[in-house]
Amino acid sequence: MALVAALRRILESAAAGTGAPVPRRARNWLLLMGCVLALASGAGAAADGELTIGEAQRYPLSRSLTFLEDPSGELTLDEVLEPAVQARFGAVPQRGDGVNFGFTRSAIWLRLVLHAPPETQPDWLLELAYPPLDSIELYAPDGPGLDRQAGGDLLPFSARAVPHRNHVLRVTLRPGGSTTLYLRLRSQGAVVAAATLWRPTALWQHDQAVYGVLGSYFGLLVGLLLYNLLLYLSVRDSGYLIYAAFAAALGAGQAALSGMGAQFLWPQWTWLNSVLPAAAFSAAAILGVQFARHFLSSAARLPRTDRFLRLQVAGWTAALVAAVTLPYTATAWLVTVMAMLSVGTGVVVGVVSIRRQFAGARLFFTAWAVLLAGVLTLALHNAGVLPSNLFTANALLIGSAFEMVLLSFALADRINVARRFKEMAQARIAAEHALVGALSQAQQRLTNTLHEREAMLNSLVEGIVLTVPGRIEWVNRRFAQMLGYPAEALVGQSPQQLDADHDGWEDFRLAARAAIAATGSCRAERRLRRASGELFWVEMSGTCLRGRDADASVVWSVREIPGRQAAPGEQRHRAAGAGST
């Protein structure tokens, strides 16, 4: 429960630092991780160093082992068998199905006494279910079988006593007697003695399920990798390519940790068993951080966080170089610390993304939270804080499987969001096209109507003139014929140029404006001049197009007065409305 309380204090500190509460779902996920870690750390009773074989198919040995730590790593079996050294064997720190000594440079000696009843079958298999162990030596000085066997991931796979992803050694018991076994373990990484004694048929039956689960995991990774590669080739979004590379790097690291790589991929290249876990996980971390940057568009939306993420990419690049050049122990600690930092950062960024309602943020946060639980559990397991069992030894594998699926869902959610935006954009474009079409049709109808009206006006026997203050805007064909000008020549001219009485024009204009301002219409008789110079009288009737606005356009109806003769100097006009010419 101390882990849960610590996580709760961290959440409260984060809320105080940001000034906003941590989302409830995020808080519950983090507390759940604490509960998982707490449940994985329970303690048990001490071992007595002896085990009596019965009718069971398998016997976990952690409760029956005693151990001796050899800091120098130079003790031989003969020295270990001396009474003074035998007295130094003590009970192992018992906290689960496996004995975990964490990262240590010491050689660890384990002693086990097996009592076999007379009816016990003699042939058994001893499994050490921790593939990263470098060196394993099994001694049976008083047994009926081989007195020494070797194992470990530094041996070529073909040299193993039993072809298996874990380290499996043959044990021959003495029915009706006792057999004392000594195991010497040494490794650059964590020293874990997850030892189980199996009847051969029981181990093979157990392997069917285990290999099936591992096959499903790697099949899932390959499927996600290929699926995202196809998506990348289809949409050319680099996020899918980064995700596919991330899955490949993570799969390579898990293949090394699970022993599947040594068995099926690089059985003779033993150096990969030491180099590849740290190198592959460093590469996966680089790609994971880059994926987070791309997925959240952090450079644009979270610039400060993006700078910190770029620093992590640089740190992981250095870790990748160190994994190839430095001893495994130093690199393992570096990768462990940086993994907790990076995955923790992913969780925090996920919380921020949820608060800002980024697309796919909830799935992104959940994926990194699950991976954080796996990384923390494996880190505490490797440090010897948590016991070694099926859950703690495979925490990263379990967490990464869930993370990969959740990140795939997050990418799919992004696709759905992009599709919705595309559909909205297409609907908006369609609406705009429909509006443009409607406007075009309306404009066409208006143009047709104008042409029809113009044709009607041109067919009238009277002249029609549209004027604005100071100039002619439009004339019909009859008015142009009346004056003997082309219609185009009249447009834009001043009406005064057509009037025969230039001196009296100003008086007429003022009288017409007054009439329009008073009643909105105007009537007058004026004498005009044809293009040939001939003078003739017309009756003009004007109507303002905008009420009584004397500055607006006026439509004039012009009718020639035939046979009218004017006295010398005569120019008559009368107004009965409004207008301007």
> Under the CATH scheme, which architecture of the largest domain would be assigned?
Up-down Bundle
Gyration radius, in Å: 48 Å
Poorly predicted regions are 1-22, 35-47, 567-581
State the shape: rod-shaped
What is the straight-line distance between the termini? Answer: 98 Å
Count of DSSP-assigned helices: 17
Give the class-level CATH name of the largest domain. Mainly Alpha
Q: Considering DSSP H and I runs of 4 or more, what fraction of the residues is helical?
A: 40-55%
Structure summary, number of beta strands: 18
Structural class: alpha+beta
User: How many separate domains make up the residues?
Assistant: 4
- Let me know the average pLDDT: 81
Bin the strand percentage. Answer: 15-25%
CATH topology name of the largest domain, in short, is: Rhopdopsin 7-helix transmembrane proteins
User: What composes the largest sheet?
Assistant: 7 strands, mixed
Keywords: Membrane, Transmembrane, Transmembrane helix
Organism: Ramlibacter lithotrophicus
Pfam family, one: 7TMR-DISMED2
Protein name: PAS domain S-box protein
